[in-house]
Amino acid sequence: MDLGLRGKWALVCAASKGLGKGCAQALAGEGVNVVITARGDAALQATAAELRALAPAVQVVAVAGDITTPEGRTAALTACPQVDILVNNAGGPPPGDFRDWDREAWLKAVEANMLTPIELIRATVDGMAGRGYGRVVNITSSSVKAPIDFLGLSNGARSGLTGFVAGTARQARLAAHGVTINNILPGSFDTDRLRGGFASVAQKSGQALDAVMAARRKTVPAGRFGTPAEFGALCAYLCSLQAGYIVGQNLLIDGGAYPGTF
Ligand code: NAP
After folding, report:
1. Nearest ligand 1 atom, CA 143
2. What SS3 state is found at 203?
3. pTM for this entry
4. Are 68 and 112 in contact (CB under 8 A)?
């Protein structure tokens, strides 16, 4: 299926690894020029080289910086000639117990996982509407739908973004002008972040890493973790011309882990 994206420009935040990288790969594979960001320059440059090899016809621009800071966002936006597609992503907040989180911890989580995507949406969607096409895909988490107790910072900050998107995506000055804003909610995906979490559980509990991973896999009806490529493919589809009628939705991609009917 031709997704109709050839020649468009995407800003894919936090994309040197994991789910963001999966999105950048899928979009570049569809002929989309990409600006990718991450804090660490070495992995970012390596990913940019991979993308250029994957899709020699597209332009790939790598911008090192922290997307949760005003400077990082300005650098990313400045590097993108025109943002047709915005993929919002950043590292997730740490796990823990809410009793241990002070105001600073909360502000950091809200800054990274709620206000940063909102700032980038604010900077881009009216331009998209003026051109009659735009896509915003926010990478959130299955924890928005099925909260995980030790991920309170994530549950809270991402739910704030989700509420904001629910209203904003439905504004006629966006939705009626070809702009869609949707959230993708990942379950367990095989990325550094997931493996890092398992490593810490293994260390604390004295279990072998393989045993911890196998136990988690058993909780997923699909019997495995998702891949960044599968995640990226969904993101690219949401950005397609064909997906223009999908507005303000929360799409869970979790191998069936969420046990509800809806
Ligand atoms: P990952 O494999 O650790 O990759 C994170 C990427 O984001 C890296 O490229 C990292 O590069 C970049 N990054 C992190 N913080 C950044 C910042 N402040 N500014 C710019 N770039 C930044 O993580 P992932 O698994 O893909 O997770 C992506 C998001 O999905 C996270 O918010 C995570 O909580 C959420 N999520 C993941 C899963 C899962 O199973 N993987 C499930 C639910 C939710 P640098 O470190 O060099 O900046």
Report:
1. 43
2. helix
3. 0.98
4. yes
